[in-house]
Write a structure and sequence with these properties.
The protein is α/β, with parallel strands linked by helices. Helix content is about 45%, strand content about 15%. The longest helix is centred in the middle third of the chain and has 22 residues.
Length: about 425
């Protein structure tokens, strides 16, 4: 799922939030474009954490072509009102949000502006990667999203811990399992996690194991309701999940994801499959000590895919000034704007523009960027590739499973029943 954005977008990237303004919310719903005047634009933002909010404010202030009114709303409030914003008679012109299934769903309802021309010729996104273009394309083949930053998931660890314990990064699944067993025998919890008040974290391992065993296409189809959660393929995923379950911190069910960082720093835990937003929770630790590796390949016949939740903007199909809206989006997606935002937001986000100068980014961020540039396919996170409603079914099923792995058969059947209700609705 999130940087700080992913952190708060479920509570949780990479720039989404915590504080809100009911007055701003009401004014936008009542008249999304009115605040900026007839010739101006309205940008509705969920980036309300202090650093991302300030970074976006600076970008908007520096845009001189058209007057832009920035409305910032708390993330959960924004999420709840998003359909209202888009379906209102006078919606905001531009809105922050995520690439993937949610954007495609709104596009299918006719709410989103066709941005395909920005992906062609000398358009702002013309040289973005094919994977990012795919994430930004609706079911009719139009591009309806403009990604401006993303981040990666990986198995994070402290280099000093591995050195102290005399262990090295595993390069195969067998080596990974052997490492977990070796650490456990030393009294170290091999895997950190926090699935208490942040149960969506249980989906991290489900996602990556499904990618490694069944591939990105199957994974996305499963989350779209084209396969069953009690299928043979998913049962195989859960077999591998059961194999690693004894290696989790026994306190994982009482931790939020942030709490699970502490035992990692204290060297009670060894590794943590989490988003790159973990770097913002290590304020008292040498930043150069943090490193990560990709979950090893399990089936060599499956193309390698990685999780990279992607943030950016879409625009309302009802925008009264399409030309200026696209100019503003192009500005936000420009290399200079992306670099300024990422540096000012103090995030571990990666730029989507290949023209951004990454030489000043930390070695950790450069390593993440290299990994994603070399991966064959990119997915996001469970709810970004499906919906928040389906995420709730995953939260229930996977936390039950981690408590009682032996009950997997009944749990998967219940999961499929719950998922069917979501898709039917």
């Amino acid at each position: 799922m999130t940087t700080t954005a992913q952190l708060t977008r479920r509570s949780l990237l990479i720039g989404a939030a915590a504080f809100g303004g009911a007055t701003l919310l009401a004014s936008c719903v009542a008249g999304g474009g009115g605040a900026a005047g007839s010739s101006g634009l309205v940008l509705q933002s969920s980036l309300s954490d202090p650093a991302p909010k300030k970074a976006l404010q600076a970008l908007v202030k520096g845009y001189k072509t058209t007057a832009v009114t920035l409305n910032t709303v708390a993330i959960e409030q924004f999420r709840a009102q998003l359909s209202t914003y888009l379906s209102s008679s006078n919606p905001p012109d531009v809105l922050t949000w995520y690439a993937g299934s949610v954007a495609r769903d709104y596009a299918s309802k006719g709410y989103l502006l066709d941005l395909s021309d920005l992906w062609k010729g000398d358009g702002a996104a013309a040289n973005y990667s094919p994977a990012l273009k795919d994430l930004s394309t609706d079911d009719s083949g139009k591009q309806i999203f403009l990604p401006t930053n993303y981040y990666w998931w990986g198995v994070f660890y402290l280099k000093s811990s591995f050195k102290e314990w005399g262990v090295s990064v595993p390069t195969t699944w067998d080596e990974f399992m052997s490492l977990c067993e070796m650490l456990k025998k030393q009294g170290i919890n091999p895997l950190s996690n926090g699935i208490g008040s942040t149960p969506w974290m249980a989906s991290g391992w489900f996602d990556i194991l499904n990618l490694r065993l069944n591939g990105a296409d199957f994974h996305k189809e499963l989350l779209a309701g084209k396969h069953s959660f009690d299928s043979a393929e998913v049962k195989n995923v859960m077999k591998y999940y059961a194999d690693i379950s004894p290696y989790f911190d026994p306190n994982a069910s009482s931790y939020a994801w942030q709490d699970a960082v502490t035992p990692l720093v204290q060297k009670k835990n060894a590794m943590y499959l989490v988003g790159a937003f973990i770097s913002q929770s290590l304020t008292d630790t040498d930043p150069d000590d943090l490193d990560f590796f990709s979950v090893p390949v399990i089936d060599k016949s499956i193309p390698v895919a990685e999780e990279a939740p992607t943030d950016g903007y879409f625009a309302s199909a009802k925008s009264k000034n399409v030309k200026d809206t696209k100019k503003f989006l192009s500005f936000l997606a420009g290399a200079e704007s992306q670099q300024a935002y990422i540096e000012s937001a103090k995030s571990s986000n990666l730029p989507t523009s290949p023209d951004v100068d990454t030489s000043k980014f930390s070695p950790l961020v450069q390593k993440g960027l290299k990994m994603l540039s070399e991966t064959e396919q990119i997915t996001q996170f469970f709810n970004r590739d499906s919906s928040d409603a389906l995420q709730t079914t995953a939260d229930t099923a996977l936390t039950k499973f981690l408590a009682k792995p032996a009950d997997v058969g009944g749990i998967l059947k219940e999961w499929q029943d719950a998922a069917t209700k979501v898709f039917d609705s």
